[in-house]
Design a protein that fits this description.
Length: about 280
C-alpha cells in the first residue's frame, strides 16, 4: 500500500511521522473519511468543506488548497489501483516541542490512506446491527465544538468499548442533558408512524455528510422528517431505527440494549431510504 505523506507517495513501511508530531502527542488535528464508488469520490467537496471548517475552528491554517487535496486524494487512489475504497485524510498541526502552546509549528502534517472497500456485507443490511445506549456521554458543545472532526477520538473509543462489552456493534451516546446525541461513528434516526426523527445539531452532534444527504432525500421524496431532541426511551416504541455514516451509508439498527426495535427486522422505510441513497452512488 502506498500512503500520501505530505508531498509524496511512500510505501506503508516508510510512512513515518515524528513522535514530536502534535497529532501523536495530543490528537491535535482534523480528519475526514471519504467513500469512493467506481473511481469517484462521493461528495468530495462536502467533506473538504468540513475539513477546512474544522481546521479553522482549531486555529489550524492549512497550507494547501482544495484543488491540491483533491489531486492528492485521486493520486493516492490511482497509485493503489483502487476503484471502490475509502480514504482517510488527516492533517495535524505538525511537529513542535512538547507543550500546549500551538506556536512554533513550522508546517502541518498531511496523510492520506486508501483502503479497498466495497461496503458492508448484504446480510448485515438484511438483519441490521445491534446497538447499546452507553454511559459515556458526548462531550458538551461548551467544552468542544461538535462541528470539529478532531483526531482526538478518545470519547468515541470509550463509548465503543462499552458497546463491544454489551455485544453491540454501535454505541448510542447521550448528551449531558440525557437526550440522544449520536453513535461513535454515525448519526441516528428513528421512525414512528411514518415520521423520521433525528437529533438536531443543537444536541451536540457532528453534522454528518451522509446525515445531510439523507435529510435532503427524505424531504425531496415527501417523507416527513423532523430534527428534534428525544430521550432514549423513545427507541422502545419506535417502528424502525437506522444510522448513517460514510461507510455505513444507511444501516438498519434492529436491536437496542437487547430489545428488538419494532419487529426486530429492518423496516420498509429504512430500505426505501437506503435505495434512494444508493441511487446517488451509481
Amino acid at each position: 500500500m502506498l500512503i500520501f505523506l505530505n508531498n509524496s507517495l511512500v510505501p506503508e513501511e516508510a510512512a513515518k511521522v515524528s513522535v514530536l508530531d502534535r497529532g501523536f502527542l495530543y490528537g491535535d488535528g482534523v480528519f475526514e473519511t471519504l467513500r469512493v464508488y467506481s473511481g469517484t469520490i462521493f461528495h468530495c467537496n462536502d467533506h473538504l468543506d468540513r475539513l477546512f471548517q474544522s481546521a479553522e475552528a482549531i486555529y489550524l491554517q492549512l497550507p494547501f488548497t482544495r484543488d491540491y487535496l483533491i489531486e492528492a486524494l485521486y493520486k493516492t487512489l490511482e497509485a493503489n489501483h483502487l476503484n471502490d475504497a475509502y480514504l482517510r485524510l488527516s492533517v495535524t498541526r505538525g511537529v513542535s516541542e512538547p507543550g500546549l502552546d500551538i506556536g512554533g509549528c513550522p508546517s502541518s502534517t498531511l496523510t492520506i490512506i486508501a483502503k479497498e472497500f466495497s461496503g458492508y456485507p448484504d446480510n448485515l443490511y438484511q438483519s441490521g446491527i445491534r446497538a447499546a445506549v452507553v454511559n459515556t456521554r458526548r462531550i458538551p458543545a461548551s467544552a468542544l465544538n461538535p462541528a470539529i472532526k478532531s483526531l482526538n477520538f478518545l470519547n468515541n473509543i470509550m463509548a465503543r468499548v462499552e458497546a463491544t462489552r454489551l455485544n453491540a456493534a454501535e454505541a448510542i451516546m447521550l448528551n449531558m442533558e440525557g437526550y440522544v446525541a449520536e453513535g461513535t461513528v454515525s448519526n441516528i434516526f428513528m421512525v414512528k408512524d411514518g415520521i423520521v426523527k433525528t437529533p438536531p445539531l443543537s444536541a451536540g452532534i457532528l453534522n454528518g455528510v451522509t446525515r445531510s444527504i439523507v435529510i435532503d432525500l427524505l424531504k425531496e421524496n415527501g417523507i416527513p422528517v423532523i430534527e428534534q431532541a428525544f430521550y432514549p426511551n423513545e427507541f422502545y416504541t419506535a417502528d424502525e431505527c437506522f444510522v448513517t455514516s460514510t461507510l455505513y451509508e444507511v444501516m438498519p439498527m434492529t436491536s437496542i440494549n437487547g430489545s428488538a426495535v419494532g419487529s426486530g427486522q429492518p423496516g420498509s422505510l429504512t430500505q426505501t431510504i437506503l435505495n434512494l441513497f444508493r441511487r446517488l452512488t451509481t
